[in-house]
Each structure stands twice: as C-alpha cells, then as structure tokens.
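To whoever is on call:

I kicked off a structure prediction for a single chain this morning and the downstream step that reads the tokens threw a length-mismatch warning. I double-checked the sequence; it's 286 residues and nothing unusual in it as far as I can see. Pasting both halves so you can look.
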Amino acid sequence: MSEPCYDAPLRVEPGAKVKLKDLDPDAAPGVADKEAAKARLEAASKRLAHLQTVLYAQREHALLVVLQGMDAAGKDGAIRGSFNAFNPQGVIVTSFKEPTPVERRHDFLWRVHARAPELGSIAIFNRSHYEDFLVNRAHGDLDDKDAALRLEQIVDFERLLAQNGVTIVKFFLHISKEEQLARFGKRLTDPERNWKIAESDYAERRYWADYQRAYEEALAATSRPEAPWHVIPANRKWFRDLAIAEIAAAALEGLKMAYPKPAVDLDDIRRKYHSAAVEEANERRS
C-alpha cells in the first residue's frame, strides 16, 4: 500500500492558470477530522526523520522548502508543525525580511543564493526570493516587462539549484481574508502573541487583492517540474501541517536515496571491537 500524499492534488501544474478565489482555504480533502490528521502527521514525521538521516549520510542531495503566504498565513506554525521531526543540526531556517542597504546594492537573488542548502542538508525559507517580486508587483512598482523578467530570473535560479542536487518544494499557504483578520484579533488578545503585531499588517492588508493577483502570476509562471508550487488550504492549521509534511516526505522518497557503503573494513572493525570488549571484561575481573 502506497503512502498517502497531497502532492498531485495540490500541485500547480506548469503553465496552469491559478484563480485563488476558486480554491477553498477551508478545504481538508481526504481527511475526516483533526484526530485523523494527527495520526497521519505522526506517520509522515517518522518518514521525514528517517529520510533526513539518509539525506545527511549520503550527501548527494539537498532539500529546499519555500514557504510563502499572506501575513498570518501560518509560515512559522508550519515549520513547527510539519517539520518538528527534523534534527535541527541538519536544518537552516532563513526568514527573509526587508533587504538591508547592502543587499539592495546587489541583485535580488544575491542574499538568497548564500542561504541555499549544501548537499546533505535542508533549508527552509520563511518568505523567500519571491518577496522581491510579490511586494513590488502588488504595490505597482513592477511593470509587465520587468515582472516577466523577474519571474524568468527566478525560474533560472531554481533550475540552477535543481541541476546541482537541490530538490525544491514550494508552498503557498492559502488563507481567507476573514481568517487573516481573525488571527490578527488573536494576536491582540493574547499577550504571548502581542509581539507579532506590526503596523505593516494593516497597511499591507489594503493590498490584499493586489497580492492575490501577484501570487497567481508567480504561481503560474514559476511552478516547474524541478520546483513545483503547491497551494495549501491553510485556514485549518492541522490540515496545513499534514499536507506539507506528506508532500515533503514524498519529494525526498522520490530521490531513492540509500545509506552509503561503510568507508572502513567492517570485519577488521569487528575484530578490534571484540578485542576491546575482551580487554575491558578482563579489566573488570581483575
């Protein structure tokens, strides 16, 4: 029996037009409720833990996870919920904020390429190289020509990574405008979430429709076989975490990885181990 996976149902096919208003952010296809999702997430987490170990041991591949979404879409929560089985030693999480003055003096991919994963490791981008396109496009600072060029450069960048052993999975966390406001409200009423509140939350909310169009444009132009996008219904956090974990596990399983052969003579090492064990046993008896 094959493992369940949301890869195909939620994947944006290359060249497909995306209409986010037609995709239900409350959807939870194929799972009955939160408890059923929890059981499947536990199974996916075990797969991810094992696959990360093989990835690290083999050092022939790397994994890049891209998380994008509107403010309060749940990018931080997805990292905790979907990937808590990962060994932190093999994962680097980068949250891309507004570019610094130094970063602005370089091309927009300069700061991103430096955070790409090395072979054997996993990188998670909490926001990513897409921010430069999305923010400027939503605010009207990129005309059609420049927007197309920016997306072409992103496709080329991701193709470069893929050709050098990086498996890329990209997730757009799709929430409704109503759900976003509800989450903003929770931040106001929960003292432990007050720190997340920013003036920009409400300023950017005014551009909701513009951001939706920018996302649709980016998803359609940059979902490729080597770097597919998945639109994750994210109003229900338990479904969000399950779908992302299963898709990531399937991507790693598709690499058909295996532990490398030992670099030592195991028979010789067994003899040394046996000799050391005998010596230690004699010392204990003396």
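Update from on-call: the warning came from a stale cache, not from the record. Cleared it. Sanity check on the structure: The chain is about 50% helix and 10% strand.
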